[in-house]
Amino acid sequence: MFNETVLKEIDEIRAKYPDRKSALLPSLYIAQREFGWLSNDALQCVAKTLNLPEAEVRGTASFYAMFKNRPVGRHLIQLCTNVSCMIFGAEKLVDFIGRKYGVQPNGTSQDGRFSLVIMECIGACGTAPAMLVNTDFYENLSENRIEEILEGYK
Amino acid sequence: MEKYFLKNIDNPDSADVNEYMKVGGYKNLSKALGMQPKEILDEVKKSGLRGRGGAGFPSGMKWSFAVADPKLPKYLLCNADEGEPGTFKDRPILEKNPHLLIEGMAISGYTLGAEYGYVYLRGEYPKAKDILNGAIKQAVEKNFLGDNILGKGVKFHLAVYQGAGAYICGEETALIESIEGKKGQPRNKPPFPVNVGAWAMPTIVNNVETLSNLPLIVEIGGEAYSKIGSKDCPGPKLYCVSGHVEKPGVFELPMGTSLKDIIYKHAGGIKGGKKLKAVIPGGISTPVLPADSIDCAMDFVSMPKAGSMLGSGAVIVMDESVCMVKVTYRALKFFEHESCGKCVPCREGTDWLRKILERIENGQGREGDIELLSDVAGIMYGKTFCPLGDGAAGVVIGMLKHFRNEFEEHIKNAKCIFSC
Ligand SMILES: Cc1cc2nc3c(=O)[nH]c(=O)nc-3n(C[C@H](O)[C@H](O)[C@H](O)COP(=O)(O)O)c2cc1C
Ligand code: FES
């Protein structure tokens, strides 16, 4: 189960909404933070805490791309390849990351350092190509820039 | 014209409440609380404000529907999902000028009789979430939000709800489902959210930029506001330009600025002096315009006449090196991924279109594929549960209308003619 601090955090979120079910998405984020990904245990914790059927929790979680249904590496690279990024060579950057760090889209490198997800526009189209590493934005990417940036994520 | 949405954003502390107040922030909230809600609503109607989320619905009209039953509690939802590819116009408000949005929402809440507001923020904006939460905390401390705003007995609370990476949650009824803690699948309309929305109560959903207009309307009045920019849909407008231009970015200009001026005057023209090929004017869901068709006013009334839509004002500029088949394929990959799966024409149609486009782009296009694309897109158009499917079909229809020869060349030569 979640510890007391987390339960309190979820309670505070619940209080902001007319219906407790609204706390589901925020609680899934919290579970993901606590467990690293939405494992069975994580989903069960959420279901119990919010008193919702587990199937419903699982169903909702599966709908959203940012909820992870498998373990992720220490750092999550979210690289955009939508049109504004694509026309500045984002797809080549996917290949580059694959070669250099041994991580394919939706996969994790063997050393567990990076996971890679292809994104559908992260709102940085004016400074394309762009990616998020964990929660940090990086824009105007090139192979060199990516190498420099990822140095900072061990 | 002096900047409104982007005022003060060069100040590194622009998101701080004190900096916002130094440039006149929150004085319009105070002014609004001295007016009757009905008076403010009349000013909004007079202003001619139209929603900036993509559809351009008159905000005053939407609001009058919502206030029809004064007995029911109401909810105000700010759509900060900003998922339309090519769009990054709400982000500077959220990250650099969050108090403008908060002030706008507090005024709106008072006008509508809503005591609770929520900002539905896309999951991909983690920085904006922290900034917005910090700004809300400051606004509560200063008594611009809370149970007794500025001692005037007005109640309005605001919280941020974080989405989790689903484009469809930008559609207002899917957004409501999502904030209720469910899968983000659109609801049937009617009932419309203004009658039965979040938690079964009347609910007003408006875009970030729309709600951020409220302080201005209160300040200068609806009449003066209606004189800014286009006559039929006035006001200041954020246009975001990406792709092959010298100076991509977000530009605040009067609504109705010509697409040509946006690209050549404000965004510095085509990068490296190359030739313009095509422009997607309002985000990926809006039909493409060829280079010779960009002499049009960027507003909700003129763009349909020019063969496209204003959408989110997200201008994607493409030079002669870009392969239109590839762009179409990438767009459909997006729609296929984001289709919520609720209705058959969209779920199956986006999958079909993507598959056909993929094989054409990869040099395996077959004779009859172009007709098949038109056919599938034609069948989808107007028959999907929500406009996501229309957007997907419209992209294909627009591309075939203007760049059919590129599709033919791909099939004839059995390869991508742009060597991509
Ligand atoms: C598939 C789809 C995605 C949408 N995404 C957004 C979005 O990200 N942001 C937004 O403000 N409106 C979006 N909309 C429009 C909303 O449904 C709604 O019209 C809008 O939030 C109303 O606010 P407005 O009147 O202020 O424009 C989307 C619509 C559809 C059909
Ligand atoms: S298309 Fe890549 S950030 Fe928008």
Short synopsis of the structure:
The complex is a heterodimer of chains A (154) and B (420). Helices cover 45% and strands 12% of the residues of chain A.
Task: Describe the fold and architecture.
The complex is a heterodimer of chains A (154) and B (420). By secondary structure, chain A is of the alpha+beta class. Chain A has helices spanning 4-14, 24-35, 40-50, 54-63, 83-86, 90-101, 143-151; strands at residues 75-80, 114-119, 131-133, 136-138. The model of chain A has no long low-confidence stretch (mean pLDDT 97). With 420 residues, chain B is an alpha/beta fold. Chain B folds into three domains: 17-225, NADH-ubiquinone oxidoreductase 51kDa subunit (Rossmann fold); 236-319, Ubiquitin-like (UB roll) (Roll); 324-413, NADH-ubiquinone oxidoreductase 51kDa subunit, iron-sulphur binding domain (de novo design (two linked rop proteins), Up-down Bundle), CATH 1.20.1440.230. In chain B, the strands form two sheets. Chain B has a five-stranded mixed beta sheet with strand order 3-4-2-1-5. Chain B is built from 16 helices and ten strands. Classes of the chains: A alpha+beta (154), B alpha/beta (420). Chains A and B meet through helix 2, helix 4 and helix 5 of A and strand 4, strand 6, strand 10 and helix 13 of B. Bound molecules: flavin mononucleotide and FE2/S2 (inorganic) cluster. Flavin mononucleotide is lined by residues 51-55, 57, 59, 79, 81-84, 168, 170-172, 205-207, 210, 386-388 of chain B.
